[in-house]
Amino acid sequence: MTQRIPREGRGLLDARPLTVERGVSRHAEGSAQLRIGNTEVLATVSIDHKVPPHQRGKKEGWLMAEYSMLPRSTQDRIARERNLQNGRRHEIQRLLGRSFRTALDLKPFRNQTLVIDCDVLEADGGTRVASVLAGYAALYDLSERLVQTGVLIHSPILYPVGAVSVGLVDGEIRMDLDYSEDAGASADLNVVATLDGRLLEAQGGAEGTPMDPDVYIQLLRAGIVGAGQLLAEVQRQL
Predict the structure, then answer these.
(1) Is 88 labeled as ligand-binding?
(2) Between the CA of residue 102 and those of 55, 171, 203, what are the distances in Å?
(3) How far is the CA of 95 from the CAs of 48, 110, 172, 200, in angstroms?
(4) Rounded mean pLDDT of 10-32?
(5) Is 44 a known ligand-binding residue?
(6) Distance of CA 86 to CAs 62, 67, 82, 92, Å?
(7) Is the torsion defined by CA of 65, 120, 28, 129 positive or negative?
(8) Does the pLDDT of residue 222 top 60, yes or no?
(9) pLDDT given for residue 127 in this prediction
């Protein structure tokens, strides 16, 4: 019989407590620190006054994201990620980059590259979705600063983006998985969506045993709703 994984007193579709603070870095053009449950991420936005070769001569700028986990963000120390070919790291960076490029109008940043650095300070599941939420908060911080200082007339944010993890654990659909739930899930998805319920990205699938397509759709729908809820909470605190 499968041992049931506890939910710390929250409902199956309830997220962990979330707190976010923007403007936490004195040096970065935009920044935010976000905590959801026991997962904590620091996100900063830097403006680099050049673009990659494929973007030269175009009317809009570029955006790229980097992701890393600090050595003691987990129970056991992990080595610093000096190997740039780390597959998981690149997979998460592509997720972050695609999400933020969709969310932002890059025309005001012609000949510039926005670099979003997401560093996991403490990990207990959901680090990539926490990075999406923290990265959005940092972009919001950047946008507010540029508007307030007169650099931009209006915010370049087109679509506020949220994210959440959902999974099938003990035959139940659960939202915002912590590490123990994620490790015991028979299927899981990381869902990135807009506040009005439009999908940007869904990343994940079954773990070992194929799942019915209807279950995938249920997970996806729960994730879209949950991503919107977490985004609304981030916006409330910004």
Answers:
(1) yes
(2) 16, 34, 16
(3) 21, 23, 26, 10
(4) 93
(5) no
(6) 23, 11, 9, 10
(7) positive
(8) yes
(9) 93
Crossing angle of the two packed helices 127-148 and 213-237, in degrees rounded to 10: 40
Q: How many domains, the chain? A: 1
205 annotated ligand-binding residue = no
Check residue 13 and report its DSSP letter: T
Nearest one of 179, 174, 164, 89 to 129, comparing CA atoms = 164
Amino acid at position 47, single letter = I
Considering the domain boundaries, does residue 7 fall inside one?
no
Asked if residue 187 is part of any domain, the answer here is yes
What mean pLDDT is reported for the chain?
A: 89
Q: Which two tokens stand for residue 162?
A: 């949220």
| Predicted pLDDT at 84 | 56
User: Which residue do the tokens 């209807």 mark?
Assistant: 214
- CATH (domain of 24): 3.30.230.70
* 208/188 Cα distance (integer angstroms): 11
Boundaries of domain holding 170 = 18-237
What are phi and psi for residue 175, nearest 5 degrees?
-115, 145
Model confidence, pTM: 0.91
In total, the chain counts a number of residues equal to 238
